[in-house]
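AAA family ATPase
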Amino acid sequence: MNRILVVGISGAGKTTMARAVAERLRLPFHEMDSLHYVGPDWVTDPEFRHRVTEIASTPAWIFDSLGYPEVRDLLWAHADTVIWLDYSRAVIMPRVLRRSLRRTLRRERIFGGNVETWTGWLSREHPAWWAWTQHAARRSEITRRVHDPRFVPLHVIRLASPREADNWLHALRPAPLQ
């Protein structure tokens, strides 16, 4: 496990899991949204594809994402492992709602200095709406990908609950010190 994607819907805990695995295995962690959004008003990096391509060509990394459409196939083609946080809506929704509410109330700066706003909650792109409306579609897409002949060689670790994920993570052997 040297090139890892942690996938799932918004609110599954991809970033938290990816950071924990990166620390345990001593891999460079890359937060996809921080690479994608580089400025206020959700400005995207015009060099995003190039930056991700450079990272993907290195021998070791972990991303907390399925990948934005423009880099998705590239990442899946370079990965050796997919950790799939395949949680139900009943698990996801309280998580994403708590996180977005906290971010909105505290005006927390995220990716590129952006903040979640009350008016943003009305957008179909808001994480809460996205998690609710895209849950089944995201699960279907990941299922298709893990069965796609191009990606069958990937080692897929499908975790169906936070407890299962915690148990798996605790059993993961740390990389030796060098």
